[in-house]
Amino acid sequence: MKFTTREDIEAPVEEVFAAFADTGGWERALLRRGAEVSRTDRLTQFGPGMSWLLAFVWRGRMRKLTVRLDQVDAPHQLAFVITGNAIDARAVLDFVPLSARRARVALAVDVKPRNLAARVFLQSLKLARAKVNGKFRARFAALCAEVEARLNPGLKMARR
Known about the structure:
Blueprint: E1 2-9, H1 13-20, H2 23-32, E2 36-39, E3 51-58, E4 61-73, E5 77-84, E6 87-99, E7 102-113, H3 116-127, H4 129-151
Antiparallel strand pairs: 1-7, 2-3, 3-4, 4-5, 5-6, 6-7
């Protein structure tokens, strides 16, 4: 199942890319939200091969995912491979400059089931596709609004 969305951010594409590539910031954000995050690689610099083990409670059960940075094309693209017990996914963030002070961020997530239970779950999501896509887009829009507010403290978040 594939999810896609895009948002425009009032900031130069290089700054937007840097904000999304700030892995330390994302680790801290996940920890604040109650997830357990641990690095599983030994890389000292940002680049392909960085990986994390995430553990979090979702729908009443502890879930574990491995996230690996698969591809970096600064400042145009970040790609991640996500693996869990039940799913395999690939998330690709594309950054497109719209002007000197505006960038578009496009997110595409392709989720594939690894077992029958995951296949049934994804099939149920397909039945509620409009609602699921709406929630996906709203969460990404909120995330982009946070990034935009961080990059442009003078802009109001209420414009969204």
